[in-house]
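Minutes, methods subgroup
Present: GH (chair), OT, SY

1. OT presented the first of two proteins processed in the latest run. Sequence and structure tokens recorded below as shown on screen.
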Amino acid sequence: MSKKSSPVKVRYGHLEFIKLNADHYDIRDVYHWTLTLSWPQFAGLVFGVYLLANLMFSVIYWLGQPCIDGVTSYSDAFFFSVETFATVGYGHFFPNTLYGHVVSTLEIMVGLFGMAVITGLIFIRFSRPVARIDFSHNLVVAPFDGQPALMMRVANLRHHAMVEAEFRMMLILDQPVKEGGNMRRFYQLPLQFERLIAFPVALTIRHMIDEKSPLYGMTAADLEKCDARLLASIVCVDSVIPAPVQSQQDYVWSDILFGKRFVEIYADVDAHRMTVDYGRLHDVEDVPAEAKTS
């Protein structure tokens, strides 16, 4: 019999993939799953596990009374569990039977391991490098140096330069095959430059549309017909940590604007300084008529 399970949804940009007959969980993925949680979700998970553990041990203490000296109510048993779990031990409550000593010893071990795991996860979440890179909302197709080019603008949002930056763009088209039907074809787009020693602020990435380009001769209607999608990726090194960081962005055919170009965001101040207007990072303008015909 074929294996059946409920579908698993995987979101990637504009696309959502639905996995059929795939395992939902693997115990080995718990570590990875906790790192993918947002900070509020992670804090809620830690608090929930901490509360559940103390509730469980306080019930065991309460059922074994009088195993803890001085405990006269369930709330006393709960707070004794909290103090034991954290290995604080204020001294007002203490085990007075073998049962109490065994349970408190077990809770101390659970607390030590639990605190070590939580501390490690918090450290990893804080120390994990994150690429603060912004991609333009749209791609534009406009003349550059007398030749049509597909252009994308990217910006480094950190206030120090990234180094050894590598840029990639991949085009995905739904095209027919000789055997009949359509299939998704993947094209690695060559860029005007694919690697920079330093990436301090913002720049424009260009793919020149020549006879070798899969975009050669294509219009906006052609891209819609082929359900064109484009993936952009940047990998660079954060010079402060230092550690490699990666960021990516996906676009659909409707995000590609023909006859538009990005507005200028650089302005000279003096011989050694210039301003970069991040507020206009995503702004585009019409290509002048003389540029279209040149």
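2. SY then presented the second protein from the same run.
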Amino acid sequence: MPGVNAPTPAPARPVLYLVACAAPPVLHVRTPLALAQQLGYDTCLVLTPTADGWLADQRDELAELTGHPVRSTYKLPADQDVLPPPDLFVVAPATFNTINKWAAGISDTLALGLLTEAVGRGEQRITVLPYLNAWQAAHSAFPASVERLRAMGVVVQLGDSLFTPHVPKSGLNRPADYPWHLAFDASHGPAEK
């Protein structure tokens, strides 16, 4: 019988889109990429335009690490998609700007376009790990944006025992210590595909 001893193809891994914004922790983006891969995800990296500029000299290495091109701009309509369709999203670090624009339905970057569509489809799990200071968090637009995203089913890891905004001008003095693991908590681990 042909094919009796043929190897069984490996099951497809769930596809995670890591959307990373321009904040100091993005300089350590290899940390969440490694964590996602350890958890069994096929991981794609999508950067905001400013984050892309910050990581421009690392794009080839990051593409090699993920096995996919790093995306930051919209493709032309006739171009083929170069990334597999996502099963879930992690947005980290998520900046004040991205959170507010996303909640308002603004999609002027690829990152925001993907996120606004994901919320609209309602099919993908989305976890957000913010990075901002306490003055930004006190702006009246921010709590409203967080609540709007949560009402859409987005998990925003903000609050006690999650991410807490830092004192202005202090930042996380060690951005390498950003709590990436919060974006991959047990309730949002890999799903069966």
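Chair's summary of item 2: The radius of gyration is 17 Å.
Next meeting: continue with the remaining queue.
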